[in-house]
Structure to design on (207 residues):
């Protein structure tokens, strides 16, 4: 369910959209970034928002992105090839303070260097629907838009709320997000909104 039109509606999983997706490489420095021309979409969110589960569900690949009961397990920038010329980038989660300061500094420098890449086309922002948008999320959206990226907000764990609560949470998020940002509710567990998320990702990778 995208921002336009602003109407709440759950979507279920359709045909698999990404049959050739594969892990490409993990990156710890700018020098390791893939250099082959491609359109890239980054996935980012707070450490406990369900980012890895969302990637796996959207890609219809269990275990593609590593999931854990311990938040903050993504410690590098992980690149996945969707098709030749199309990639997604799994960014380390933010808002989780147990990683050593030098490691967090390394992530920050890497992520801040992404706008310098000509390949980044968009950002999927992963938000726990029960927690709503935090200041850090809004700052990330503003940073991404200033970099010229498209932004799509994925309100995950929607199965934890009833339909009325989902609609209210989506409306509240849309009120805080800039008009250019699309948004939807999503659940990996009950596969709510999966087809809509797949289509939005394809738009970013293809447009």
């Amino acid at each position: 369910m995208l921002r336009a039109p602003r109407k709440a509606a759950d979507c279920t999983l359709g045909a698999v959209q990404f049959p050739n997706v594969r892990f490409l490489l993990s990156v710890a420095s700018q020098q390791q970034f893939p250099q082959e021309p491609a359109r890239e979409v980054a996935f980012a969110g707070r450490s406990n928002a369900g980012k890895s589960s969302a990637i796996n569900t959207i890609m219809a690949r269990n275990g593609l992105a590593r999931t854990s009961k311990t938040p903050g397990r993504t410690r590098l920038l992980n690149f996945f090839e969707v098709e030749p010329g199309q990639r997604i980038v799994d960014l380390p989660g933010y808002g989780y303070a147990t990683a050593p300061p030098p490691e967090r500094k390394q992530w920050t420098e890497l992520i801040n260097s992404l706008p310098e890449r000509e390949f980044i086309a968009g950002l999927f922002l992963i938000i726990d629907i029960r927690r709503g948008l935090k200041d850090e999320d809004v700052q990330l959206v503003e940073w991404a838009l200033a970099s010229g990226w498209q932004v799509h907000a994925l309100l995950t764990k929607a199965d934890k709320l009833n339909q009325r609560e989902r609609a209210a949470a989506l409306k509240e998020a849309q009120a805080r997000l800039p008009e250019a940002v699309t948004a939807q509710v999503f659940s990996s567990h009950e596969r709510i909104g999966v087809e809509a998320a797949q289509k939005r990702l394809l738009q970013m990778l293809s447009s």
